[in-house]
Amino acid sequence: MRGLLQRLQRRAEKRLPALTRYRRPEPLPITLHRRRIYIVPSGFGLGFTVLLLVMLVGALNYNNNAALLLTCLLGAASAASMLVAFRNLDGLRLDHLRAGHAIAGEAIELVCSFHSDRPRSAIRLDLDDESTAFAVDGTDAARVSLRLPTRRRGWQPLPRLRLWTSWPLGMFRAWSWLHPAQSVLVWPRPEATGPAPRAMADDARHMQLHRGEELAALRDYRAGDPQRHIAWKPSARHDDLLVKDFEQPRSQPQWSLDWRQLHGLDDEARIARLARWLNEAQAQRRSFSLWLPGNDIGSGSGPQHYVRCMDALAGLP
Questions:
Q1: Which residue in 14, 140, 160, 222 has the most C-beta neighbors within 10 A?
Q2: d(CA 247, CA 228)
Q3: How far apart are CA 268 and CA 180, in angstroms?
C-alpha cells in the first residue's frame, strides 16, 4: 500500500504544477504555510471511510437512530483529524541547518533546527530512505539529525527534505517539501597506503629547542640566568650554583605537505595522498603545513588546523 501511494504521489507531482512549486532551492529560514502543505487520506483513512459508508447505509436501512448518531460522530472525528493534521505542520519553521564532516563514500550528519510558537507532535522528516520522528514543545528549538549519503568529494547540494505527519488518528497524511539552498563539503577519501611525507627536520641537527613547562635537567649557572631558576637545594650540595633547565628538544619534526612535490600523479591521486598524510599527522599529533595551488596554509596542529586543511583539500577543483 505504501509503495502504491508513493507511485501515485510521484505521478501527481509530474502532472500538477502546484505540487512541484517548491522544488527550487530556497534560502533559510523556511516557514510552512497553507499554500505549501498537501493532505490526502491514508490507507487506513480510506478503509475507515468505506466502513462509515456501510454503517450509514445500515443505519438508514434499519432506521436505527443510535447507529446513525455513531456514524455522524465518527465522521466528524475523522474530519477534525484532517484539520489537526494540517495544523500540525502549518507555521512550522526551519531556522538553520548544520552539516558535520565526512569523507567521500560515508554518510554526513545533518542537524536541522525547527522552531514553532506552539507544541507539535509526531512529525517525521524524510531524507531519501531515512526517516526521523520528532516533536516541538513550543519553547526551545527541536534539533533533528539525519544522515546524507555521499559519493564524491567537494561541494554537494542538499536534496529535498519531506516533512509529514499523520497525527492524531492516522486517517490523513499531511506533507510538505523543504529544499534549502545550501551545500555541504565532503572531504576526499585518503589513499590506503603510500610513502611517508618529507619532514622539515629529519635529524637532531635541525631539532629546535623550545621553552617547556617541566624540568628537563640541571646545569651550571651562567651569567644572565634569572634567580628564580636557581636550584638552591641541589646547589647547597655542590661547589657551584645549579640552574633549572626547562629547554627541551621538539619530540617530532614538522611535516611539510606540498602539492608540488607529488610528481607523476594526477590531481585526484595527489589529493588522496595529501589526505592520508593529514590523517597521519593528526593521529600522531604532529605540526604540519600544507601548500595547495592558490592556498598556502602555514604550520600548525590540532583539530581546527586539521579541519581547515581538509576543507581546503576538498574544495579543490
A1: 160
A2: 15
A3: 29
